[in-house]
Structure formats: structure tokens, C-alpha cells
Design brief:
The protein has helices at residues 13-16, 37-52, 65-73, 79-84, 94-106, 114-139, 150-154, 159-176, 191-197; strands at 5-6, 21-22, 26-31, 56-60, 88-92, 143-147, 179-185, 200-209, 212-222, 232-237, 240-243. With 251 residues, it is α/β, with parallel strands linked by helices.
């Protein structure tokens, strides 16, 4: 049975996916710095709310919320307005991480030994999910973006612990019945573990040829649907990303 699709809100992408992303899946967008990951996630959330009446939660882990909103305004996306209308919630979770550590120190749950560091890490991931769950319930969200998840995998030296945390987070997102986009920085430890847990992988690429750089997109994996397997040009326009499904990079 064909899975229900949702529109990505990114011109050209749905053409590569036979109509859109399978609903309620978890999809990883991986790429190096500058390939357009944050714009991808913001466009997915913003156009989902504006064009398809699907509220969304955007979790930012490495950027100030005020800076994020100002930066997206340059693309014509007024996240501040959507937040006031209850259609979107931008969660600056880095503050929550700091709060986890401070609170844990105060109540004696965290010390300098490795076992307590593991306890702190569990609290961080768990509280992040609880906040996502709360915001999803409040605005009846259908979409979630976490940008990026890399910081979670960097906070522990244990591959087993990192994988367990990812499994816990992903299982929680599936229970929420939302379509999720997870941003991953290329080359970060343990990100390969994410690929076994997610429903799809979209790789953003920047290649150089004859001193010219071109961005591109490749759908590496997508469960529940056929998909294009070519490396397609991607451009950052004044209103966001655009993919060219009928072209190839560096023709």
C-alpha cells in the first residue's frame, strides 16, 4: 500500500520523491557547512505552515534564536509572525542543555566521573524530547526539525550510549506522529548510526570543478517510495532552495 505523502515545500524535491516525503517518517539531511542544511530545514517548516497548514517545531542547537529569525527574514520568511499566530515554534535548545547541566550540578546528579557524565547526557536528550513533545501538543505540530543533531553525539565518548540516545529520541518522534527532518554535519562521529535508524537520507553536496563551486542534492535512501538516484543541482535563491530534477551537476 502506497504511503501517504506530504509536500516538502522545497521546489523540485518532491519530483525526486514521486510526489513527496512519506508521512510521519524521520529523514536525515547530511552535508558540510555551507551546503544549505539550515535553509532546507527552515523552508520545510515555514512553507509547511504557510502553504499546507501543517504547524511545525524547529529546534536549533547551535544558533541564537534571534539571529536565526533575522537570518531567515532575508529569505522572506517571517518566523516571528508565525510564532505569534501559533503556527510555528522555534526552540533554542542550547539554553535547555545549559539548564540541564546547571540543575544536575545543583542536585548532585553530575560529577566529574564518567558515570555521572552519562547520566547528564541522558537528561539532556530526554528533556529535549519532552520539550519537543510539549510544543508539538501545544500547536498541533505535524513537522519537526532538529538542527543539528551532531551536538548530541559529540557529548559522549561512548558509541553505545550515543546510539542508545538516538534510538530513544527517534522512537519518541515516531510516537508523536510527525514528519521529522534531522540535520547532521558531514564527518561528525557516530552520524553513520543515524542512517540505520532513519527512513531516508538526503545528502547536500558542494563540488568544485575548474575553480567553480556548485551545490547539489542526492537522495541516498528513502523507504516506502521509489526515488531519483541522480546528483541534481541545488541553488540558493532569494526565496530559499530550489532543486533542478531534470538537470545534472556540471553539465
Amino acid at each position: 500500500m502506497e504511503k501517504e505523502r506530504i509536500k516538502s515545500g522545497i521546489p523540485g524535491l518532491d519530483d525526486l520523491l514521486n510526489g513527496g516525503l512519506p508521512k510521519n517518517g524521520i529523514y536525515v539531511v547530511v552535508g558540510e557547512t555551507g551546503t544549505g542544511k539550515s535553509i532546507f530545514g527552515a523552508q520545510f517548516i515555514y512553507n509547511g505552515a504557510v502553504d499546507y497548514n501543517e504547524p511545525g517545531v524547529y529546534v536549533i542547537l547551535e544558533e541564537d534564536k534571534k539571529y536565526f529569525i533575522e537570518n531567515m527574514q532575508s529569505l522572506g520568511w517571517d518566523f516571528d509572525k508565525l510564532e505569534k499566530e501559533g503556527k510555528v515554534k522555534v526552540v533554542p535548545y542550547i539554553k535547555s542543555i545549559i539548564g540541564d547541566v546547571s540543575t544536575s550540578l545543583e542536585i548532585g546528579l553530575v560529577s566529574n566521573d564518567s558515570s555521572m557524565d552519562r547520566a547528564r547526557q541522558y537528561l539532556t536528550v530526554n528533556s529535549m524530547f519532552m520539550q519537543i513533545q510539549e510544543e508539538c501538543a501545544r500547536i498541533k505540530a505535524k513537522r519537526v526539525v532538529i538542527d543539528p543533531i551532531s551536538i548530541i553525539t559529540l557529548l559522549t565518548d561512548s558509541e553505545v550510549l550515543a546510539r542508545m540516545q538516538l534510538i530513544s529520541l527517534f522512537e519518541g518522534l515516531r510516537r508523536l506522529e510527525v514528519t521529522s527532518i534531522i540535520m547532521v554535519e558531514e564527518g561528525v562521529r557516530y552520524w553513520e548510526d543515524v542512517t540505520f535508524l532513519c527512513d531516508g537520507i538526503i545528502r547536500l553536496i558542494m563540488k568544485e570543478k575548474n575553480s567553480l563551486f556548485e551545490r547539489g542534492l542526492l537522495v541516498r535512501k528513502m523507504r516506502g517510495t521509489g526515488h531519483d538516484t541522480g546528483m541534481r543541482p541545488l541553488k540558493i535563491m532569494k526565496d530559499g532552495l530550489r532543486i533542478y530534477p531534470n538537470e545534472v551537476m556540471f553539465r
